[in-house]
Automatic annotation (TrEMBL):
Lineage: Bacteria, Bacillati, Actinomycetota, Actinomycetes, Micromonosporales
InterPro entries xrefs: Cyt_P450, Cyt_P450_B, Cyt_P450_sf
The protein's name in its UniProt record: Cytochrome P450
Chain residue ranges for the region called Disordered: 1-30, 78-101
Family: Belongs to the cytochrome P450 family.
Database matches in SUPFAM superfamilies: Cytochrome P450
Entry-linked Pfam families: p450
Length: 409
């Protein structure tokens, strides 16, 4: 299997290793340091880019326990909580989206939004998802070869569908897509990040006002007409909408591109899936576990002293709960570094776990199933034109992925 380059040097007793760590071996597997951490120091210190230190939790059982421990918080108003993406900690403690809230505040937003992402609701949307995928693949077909699957399919499909679900006008789709990309890049200067946040928030606030005047059947309308007794400020409602857009757009786009690469690299499994499309739902769950693209989106902070795997974490200390490491833990998944479409993936943490488990997982799964089935049915001879180790990977994004994927058919 092709590799991506040198690994990050291990730390010493006086100097903890740098975090985030790169996928320096096979791009489909998490950083190789994770396996060492699981076996030798499952709760360990690491240093972030700003020089602050955090705890890394790497074993499945410990990650699961931490995600359900009320003493371990997602609350972004607590000073010192790590920033999503691994750039550092927040010294001020600022309110962000409902994803970075604890109960009971978190529960208010979840109850508002969950009805739009139930299995029943998503089943009614599958024809619309299919039309969106077909349209994107038509554009790819007509664009000439080689074509960039990332630009023409992976980014387009979730962006169009999420904007429609929110109620964002089609004319605004490109605006929100470009700003969402900025928010997820770790290397973006802080002034550009703040500008993107403010621009998105301003547009969301304007859309909320528009939905009050002209309501529709969409999430922004529901938020705009949230019950008055909830006493939710427009800035908070706009933040909730922004969270849905950011998470569902980039994570699904990364999964489409990397998942396509995995399938092309496993022709035996792909042949089975082409022969029996009923296998796609299980294969998608395995792709989610195997790739675990959102490894940097579970920052936490201890609200009080807590012990994890024998290690004391003091109140006010930050943690990263490593979902990719948990999903490749040999104590929970047999032969975890092998892609196996027939394995049981029950319990995988690609969508998190517990009360903060991703509300959009049913939508994402449906998109992935339809994209992969349609892509390989319509383009049975699809292939990537660049070797795996020569592709440009998203090492600077909160969601690991690939910047471009040139394909021919």
């Amino acid at each position: 299997m092709a590799t991506l380059g040198p690994t990050v040097p291990a730390g010493t007793a006086d100097s903890p290793p740098s975090f985030p760590m790169r996928r320096s071996g096979c791009p489909f597997n998490p950083p190789p340091e994770y396996e060492t951490l699981r076996s030798t120091e499952p709760v360990s210190r690491a240093m972030l880019r700003d020089g602050s230190t955090v705890w890394l939790v790497s074993r499945y059982a410990d990650v699961q326990a931490a995600l359900t421990d009320p003493r371990i918080s997602s609350d972004s108003t607590i000073p010192g909580i790590p920033l999503a993406g691994g750039t550092g900690v927040d010294p001020q403690g600022r309110r962000s989206s409902f994803v970075r809230m604890d109960p009971p505040e978190h529960d208010v937003y979840r109850k508002l939004l969950v009805p739009d992402f139930t299995m029943r609701k998503i089943r009614t949307l599958r024809p619309r998802i299919q039309r969106t995928v077909d349209d994107a693949l038509d554009v790819m077909r007509d664009s000439g070869q080689p074509a960039d699957l990332v630009k023409l399919v992976a980014l387009r499909v979730p962006s169009v569908l999420t904007c429609e679900l929110l109620g964002v006008p089609e004319s605004e789709h490109h605006f929100f897509q470009t700003r969402a990309n900025v928010l997820l890049e770790r290397s973006v200067p802080m002034n550009e990040l703040r500008t993107a946040v403010m621009e998105m928030r301003t547009h969301m606030l304007a859309l909320l006002d528009e939905k009050r005047r002209n309501p529709g059947d969409d999430i922004l309308t529901k938020l705009a007409h949230a019950p008055a007794e909830l006493e939710l400020a427009d800035s908070e409602l706009a933040g909730a909408a922004q969270s849905v857009l950011n998470a569902s757009h980039e994570s699904t786009a990364s999964m489409i591109a990397l998942g396509t690469l995995v399938l092309l690299e496993h022709p035996g499994a792909l042949a089975e899936l082409k022969a029996d499309p009923a296998l796609w739902p299980k294969a998608v769950e395995e792709l989610l576990r195997y790739l675990s693209v959102g490894d940097l989106v579970l920052p936490r902070i201890a609200k009080e002293d807590v012990e994890i795997a024998g290690q004391r974490i003091a109140a006010g200390e930050g943690l990263y709960l490593l979902a990719a490491s948990a999903n490749h833990d040999k104590d929970f998944f047999e032969d975890p570094d092998t892609f196996d479409i027939h394995r049981s993936t029950r319990g995988h943490m690609a969508y998190g776990y517990g009360i903060h488990q991703c509300i959009g997982q049913n939508m994402a799964n449906a998109e992935l199933e339809i994209v992969f089935e349609t892509l390989f049915r319509r383009f049975p001879d699809l292939r990537c034109t660049v070797p795996l180790d020569e592709l440009s990977y998203k090492h600077e994004s909160a969601f690991f992925g690939v910047h471009e994927l040139p394909v021919t058919w």
